[in-house]
Amino acid sequence: MQKPIILAISGASGSGKSLFTQNLALKLRQHEREVLVLQEDHYYKAQDHVEMEERVSTNYDHPDAFEHDLLNQQLQELNAGNSIEYPRYCYVTHTRLPDFEVISPAPIIILEGIMLLTQIQLFDQFDIKVFVDTPLDVCLMRRMLRDTQERGRSISSVAKQYEATVKPMYHKFIEPSKTFADLIVPHGGENLLAVDVVSSYLLEGKSKIA
Ligand SMILES: Nc1ncnc2c1ncn2[C@@H]1O[C@H](COP(=O)(O)OP(=O)(O)O)[C@@H](O)[C@H]1O
Ligand SMILES: Nc1ccn([C@@H]2O[C@H](COP(=O)(O)O)[C@@H](O)[C@H]2O)c(=O)n1
């Protein structure tokens, strides 16, 4: 198999990375392209040895909360045509699930996550780097709805975590990483023009933004 094309999609929490990724993957699959979607969140460190009370106050918006070495190693395996043991993560228990998923490479791999463009050691693995740029107040509103509906959070816990870590770490790490992007996509998931532009580029067989 030819070396896969790897796209890194980054941006703030709630910016619309996942929705943008889903829409892009859908478009490519409609054109019979095989696409593998991966999430940096699955590489959050396991915290089985940490008490629940402490897990709740972990800073999940710091690069050190992730096991980027494992991500790097697994991207290299996929690039070499090998399958990986993809970890699975649970936002409710704040740790990894005990099992993993065996995943095979695909010609197009889309990886999305908040810290991807802060990790220079991963850049050799990325063919295209995208930053989804959505105003933080919009991200907060989206996150509030999503995390109370899907991630077992209360309104007050979302608000508290936003002030304590999400917002300051965005300004410290994520926002400055925008400078490494090849493309900046405003609004996020529903930006269908951006989905069209990126998918057309890939469908034309182009793989690297010089
Ligand atoms: N452009 C958009 N308009 C309205 N809602 C959106 C848009 N983009 C994303 N959302 C919604 O906002 C929430 C957060 O989006 P998501 O893609 O999960 O963000 P991220 O992956 O960046 O954290 C989701 O519920 C998603 O459906
Ligand atoms: N146990 C955890 C792990 C992560 N988070 C938050 O998730 C955000 C990243 O995921 P997105 O899908 O929103 O990009 C990040 O901002 C962490 O604060 C969490 O709350 N609990």
From TrEMBL:
Pfam families the record matches: PRK
Subcellular location: Cytoplasm
Residue ranges annotated for the Phosphoribulokinase/uridine kinase domain, each copy included: 6-193
InterPro entries for this protein: P-loop_NTPase (IPR027417), PRK/URK (IPR006083), Uridine_kinase-like (IPR000764)
SUPFAM superfamilies: P-loop containing nucleoside triphosphate hydrolases (SSF52540)
An example Gene Ontology CC term for this record: cytoplasm
Keyword field: ATP-binding, Cytoplasm, Kinase, Nucleotide-binding, Transferase
One of the record's GO molecular function terms: ATP binding
Pathway involvement of the protein, from the record: Pyrimidine metabolism; CTP biosynthesis via salvage pathway; CTP from cytidine: step 1/3; Pyrimidine metabolism; UMP biosynthesis via salvage pathway; UMP from uridine: step 1/1
Regions annotated as coiled coil: none
EC numbers, comma separated: 2.7.1.48
One GO term (biological process): UMP salvage
Family: Belongs to the uridine kinase family.
UniProt-recorded name of the protein: Uridine kinase
Species of provenance: Glaciecola nitratireducens (strain JCM 12485 / KCTC 12276 / FR1064)
Lineage, top ranks: Bacteria, Pseudomonadati, Pseudomonadota, Gammaproteobacteria, Alteromonadales
